[in-house]
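Morning!

This is the sequence you dropped in the shared folder:
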Amino acid sequence: MRQDNLSRYVLEYMGELVIAFDERGLISYGNKIAEEKLEFAGQLSGTHISEIFPNEFTETEDGFETEVVFGTNVVQNLMAYRMNKTCFAVEAKFSDLNEDFEYVCIMKDITNRNYLEKRIKQVEQDAEDALKVKSEFVANVTHELRTPVNGILGNTRELISRIEDEGLLRILDLMERGCNDMHALINNILDFSKLEAGKFTLEKREFDFRKMVDYVKGNHIHKITEKGLEFFVTISPEVPTHIIGDELRIVQILNNLLSNATKFTSVGKIAVEIVKTAQMGQQAELFFLVTDTGVGIAKENLDKLFKSFSQVDASISRKYGGTGLGLNISKQLVEMMGGTITVQSELNQGTIFSFSVWVDLPKEEQEKEAVTVDRMAFLTGVMQGREEDAHLKEFGTEENIAELEKNLSKLILCVEMDNWEKAETFMTAVKQLTDAAPQEIRTASLRLKMAVQKADYDKTNAAYEELMKLL
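The structure's back. Tokens below.
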């Protein structure tokens, strides 16, 4: 881009984010406010435009593909992604300069405006007609009751397996908490019939945010690790210790996303990262990332995720169970708390769900100094983890063979204990780890899978020995 053209754009849109990129999609310039808002710490130049707009731009061998409209008078509402994969709403204009085949994008951060608009609309929405209350009542109550029941069931199993363990008291405490949750939900059912437009009532109170996260982690860690998966939870230091909000609803959203991640992941890890991304007076925006290395979702199916009774395809409900209501309810709860929920996924490459909520801050938290977080380190950890996961599924790598042997060892132990259901869980992981293997190994893996499904002890052991020899 010519210097005079660039200067004209920067001067004309001084208060907005300005980035320039070439026909390959590589960013050649970003003004100061763009660097600050996108948090690339001087590394914006050379980044592909699809990193900023992953939903609108796709990187190709020749450069990029996009459906955005180029024109100085065309304003488009998009989500711009920071370097740490959190995102915020923008109004964007894209211009094709037709000189040196380069383009300019001018953006305005509209997070604050959207927040204020949602607060205004909330008053109007309270008066909406409640024609759909009856059908949505049944759907919501079914999902609401299932959440604590799953928590009680999971912790009961943990208690049985560790009946003489010193951690018994902690597990009993979690079970008690689950019962309290169920009691609270039943009370909500009684209140729900009085609500208009099928809306839940948010019950805001002050609570310890980290204790809440520990509770969620305790509900899921046994089931996740039982499948041979790693589980990581990271809370950035700038996240307040105490917040004011609906603890039960935040727990419900996290429980749903973690349950889905556990259900659809057989190899690798599940991670939760939480950061504070904005603050306006006595309110703050908390941003949650739930990442898994599971089966993933094809891009053409992503729009089905948040619809009621919707699954990606019919085989999902047959294989994994579920009604398809969980994500739709989570979306409604997130929006009630002033936030948004999005998903990034590729088939067989895992999924990242991200959602934000606005919460109130107690007086002592408002008066605290803001803590600066090394977001570069946060992003580096996420990306390094995803690179390791890619090696995990690439047959023949050191990580792949180690993970394969670990799952085979657990599988044969389950067979010896006559626990065929759990053996099938590890067999699913073995199958994924050998999908890219040579034909003879895939055949041996298939023989093992068929023997496990038939609960045939002799054939399972024979197929296991055959597969181990080939490794």
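Headline: The chain has three domains: 3-109, 124-389, 398-470.

More detail when I'm at my desk.
O.
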